[in-house]
Amino acid sequence: MLRRFVWLLAILVVLFVVTEIAGAMGWVAHLQPVSFHGLLANPLFAIGFGGPLLLHLSSLPRWKELAITALLGIGLSLLVGQWVLGLGLASTVVLLVKSIRDAEARLFLLPALITLFFTLEVAMFLGVVSHIAPLTYDGIAFAGDAAFGANISFEVGRLFAAVPFIAAVCTAIYLAPPPGLIFVYALQVRGKQRPPVDIVTTLVVMGITGYALYFLFPVCGPKFAFPSFPNNPPDAARLAGNLLPVPPAPRNGVPSLHMASALIAWIHARRYGRIAGAVAMVFVIGTFLATMGTGEHYFIDLAVAVPFTFAMEFLLQRRLREAIAPAMLFFVWLLTLRFYGQVSVAMWGLLLVTIAHAAYALWRVDRHGGEDHVGVLPLRIQ
Question: pTM of the entire structure?
Answer without folding.
Answer: 0.87
